[in-house]
Amino acid sequence: MVAEAFRKLREAVRGDDGRGLVQGHLKPIDTDEIAQKLDIDQVAAERGTREQPATGSQSLDGVEQQIIQTVESEWSWHGADLINNLRAYGARLIAVSVQTELANLDLLAQNTLARLRDANHRAEAELGPLREAFIAYRDELRDFRERNKLKRAARNPGGRWTTFGLLIFLIGFEAALNGFFFAKGSELGLLGGIGTAIGISFVNVLFAFGLGLFPLRWINHRNLIIKLLGFIFALAGGVGLIALHGFAAHYRDATASVGEGQAFATAIETLRASPLGLADLNSFYLFGIGILWAFLAAWKGAAFDDPYPRYGAHHRRVVHAREAYSDEHAVLFEDLEEIKEETIKALDAGIKRIPLFPQQAAKIRSERDAHIRAFRAYETSVVTAVNQLLARYRDVNTFNRKTPRPQHFDVPWKLSHSFLAEGAALKDIAEPTAPTLDASTAMDELKSLSKAVLDEYEVLMVNYPHPTKMPF
Questions:
Q1: pTM of the model
Q2: From CA 187, how far away is CA 9, in angstroms rounded?
Q3: Other C-beta atoms within 10 Å of 200: how many?
Q4: Which is nearest to 137 in space by CA: 154, 114, 123, 149?
Q5: N or C: which end of the chain has fewer CB within 10 A?
Q6: What is the CA 415 to chain-centroid distance, rounded?
Q7: At what angle do helices 281-302 and 224-258 cross, to 10 degrees?
Q8: In 3-state terms, what secondary structure has residue 313?
Q9: 184 to each of 247, 348, 394, 431, how far by Cα in Å?
Q10: pLDDT digits (tens, 9 = 90+) for 339-394
């Protein structure tokens, strides 16, 4: 901007040969250079010998007007530059105004307080129920641990979904393998054998998984009655699985010997009469595979959750409630911490800057006053330069003429107006009409605003703390 202003000044007063007609910004005008540039002496002599301007002329001739316009063009440019400079001084004074600084920071603090209060209202409606649910589940978990004297953390086995995949694999693999065993004696051959095997495998794997998930884990309970019930049910379930696979092995022998129509009754009879009396080695394989698969399924069932009954369920409810609270907390308070920090930082910076403002303002006013004095002196030099050039032209003109010189030759030139007296300049020079605010008072106000922001944020965080500050 400054470079552009000087460029315009240079172009405004540049002559045909590119040399400036003035000697720098607000410096005295070189009348000799202007006189030489306008060739005043020769023009004045020529016009004097032709008795121009006429003795009765009452207005300035073209040469006089050219002299005045040459100097006035520079004066007009500097006048416009004066107005811009005064506005710049005004902007600088506003920047170091205690009132302006306090107003800007007060607006920033009030906006931050409004956002914090809005977040508090939203949290009450959106985050409050989630917080209450988390606290309720957390207290239930604590009570459960105290009642059952659990000091360790709950175990939440990973890969729970892979367990179901393994169960499906066990059912499918056992069914396919046993299908070959049941194919002998089945009216539909391999297809019929696989159909029978799927039913047995399905019952085997799912029943064994449920046996491990419930009765086997009940054995870990501190209550002796529940522990005993778990042992009884687990033992009964194990016996039931052995009986199931014993029946399956005898059923295979029966289908091979008497056909599918009488196989069921024959298998029941042979199982009661001679449980280990199997006719085919493949039937023993069928029994062994079924027991092995039942063991694997029961083991996965026992490891599917925390070993202590219901401990894992209580823990998962707390975890899910905490995650729901955490997600909603992030949505509501994502930017509040940063906004609060930036506001406090700005208020602290204002508290540090304000004591320096009076001294800075005094320096700016001093620079402004010096600039005004320089321009006032410059306007005086403009009047002096114009009158010197006019006098030079008029004296040479008078010397070379025979008739009396015009009367206006004896009238000195004056500025039509002063830029310092213009309304725009006076407005930019004028000081604010509002009373000056004491710096210490402004600092106290900023400290109060800073405390209000911190208190509002603290209340919000106490009522709705970050999930990391809400332990189990």
A1: 0.54
A2: 114
A3: 22
A4: 154
A5: N
A6: 60
A7: 150
A8: helix
A9: 16, 91, 142, 112
A10: 999 999 999 999 999 898 889 989 998 999 999 899 999 999 999 999 999 999 99
